[in-house]
Automatic annotation (TrEMBL):
Name listed for the protein in its UniProt record: 3-oxoacyl-[acyl-carrier-protein] synthase 2
Signal sequence extent: none
Homology family: Belongs to the thiolase-like superfamily. Beta-ketoacyl-ACP synthases family.
InterPro entries for this protein: 3-oxoacyl-ACP_synth-2, Beta-ketoacyl_synthase, Ketoacyl_synth_AS, Ketoacyl_synth_C, Ketoacyl_synth_N, PKS_Beta-ketoAc_synthase_dom, Thiolase-like
GO biological process: fatty acid biosynthetic process
Domain Ketosynthase family 3 (KS3): 1-410
The species this protein was found in: Oceanithermus profundus (strain DSM 14977 / NBRC 100410 / VKM B-2274 / 506)
Function: Involved in the type II fatty acid elongation cycle. Catalyzes the elongation of a wide range of acyl-ACP by the addition of two carbons from malonyl-ACP to an acyl acceptor. Can efficiently catalyze the conversion of palmitoleoyl-ACP (cis-hexadec-9-enoyl-ACP) to cis-vaccenoyl-ACP (cis-octadec-11-enoyl-ACP), an essential step in the thermal regulation of fatty acid composition.
Origin organism lineage: Bacteria, Thermotogati, Deinococcota, Deinococci, Thermales
Top-level taxon: Bacteria
Pathway linked to the protein: Lipid metabolism; fatty acid biosynthesis
Amino acid sequence: MRRVVITGLGPVTPIGVGAQAFHQAQLAGKSGIRRITRYDPDAYQLNVKIAGEVDVDIDDYLDRKEARRLDRFVQLALIAAELALRDAGLEAGELEPETTGVLIGSGIGGIKTWEDQFKIYFQRGPHRLSPFFIPMVISNMASGHVAMKYGFQGPSSTVVTACATGTDSVGSAARMIQHGEADVMITGGTEAAVTPMAIGGFAVMRALSTRNDEPEKASRPFDKDRDGFVLAEGAGVLVLEEYEHAKRRGATIYAEVAGFGRSEDAHHITEPHPEGKGALLAMKAAMRDGGVTPEQIGYINAHGTSTPLNDRAETLAIKKLFGEHAYKLLVSSTKSMTGHLLGAAGAIEAIATAQALASGVIPPTINLVESEPELDLDYVPGEPREAAVEYALSNSFAFGGQNAVLLLKRV
């Protein structure tokens, strides 16, 4: 198998846009959660009025006419891809088009366009729908538009595995390089679901935090007072390269994608397996793929959603897999700062994990004041922690029981 390394990072998140801003915000324990501004939350009879929104000027990156023909999830993916390529020190003309591919996933796709066009359909009839309606909503358009913008003609695909999408995308892209389908992959996840219907759908499931009066404290993974996750938007794109390809051009390497594992809970459409079986299997598969033992893992970027069931099941899975070593691990959830970016979450967290390995500083879990007795791991509460870690896992678990885990190695 060919080695795969991460050479470019393009985070577009509620706490920072660009690799440096995102990393500094993590180490500062910054919260990106606030009262919703993308629509008036008081206009809807919902008890959720907070989310993680991205502050980025689309006009700084995209032509205004072009941007109007794209759903926000594609806009954010294009921005993230540009930032990742720039961070990798790459110009499109430097890459061989036929050996450069794109794999950017989205859990939901163009839901804002769906909502807008739904209103037009019922108010004015189907003949008044936008001719760009279908191309704006389908999830593969993030990969498609990035490939078209830069002329990349290698493998192009899309992963849709709900909240495991970003991790699934990065792992699948890495395997394309390992197997010789491409030398470079532009990969990650994107989501723009801070909309009335998306918020409403999760709210009626009672999945979201209702801590509207203290939005910056609403996302609190592993804390006994957690009351649900906080929905967020954003995109994370990484440049993956075959190791020798990166070495020849003198690229800066953040980390190596050393392993990838997937599993299925086969238990429930929304609840994780109560014993964490699927999470355990995916972590074990990633370590088996990388040929490492549990004792070699030093850090886990947890799925850590801030929901009662997920945090408990993930902690249990870690304890079962790692035994006594679980208490020597550093485990943190960057969702405490960014909120939950759904299909983009895993990609953003892969970026955070790569930065932790490269910098030797582990991002904290903010808002963790007091845990339940069974949540007794070292969740790096409050402040970042210096630690020279060689191997780290990045966990993502999804509705439908789909799980994906990346094993990253310091280079």
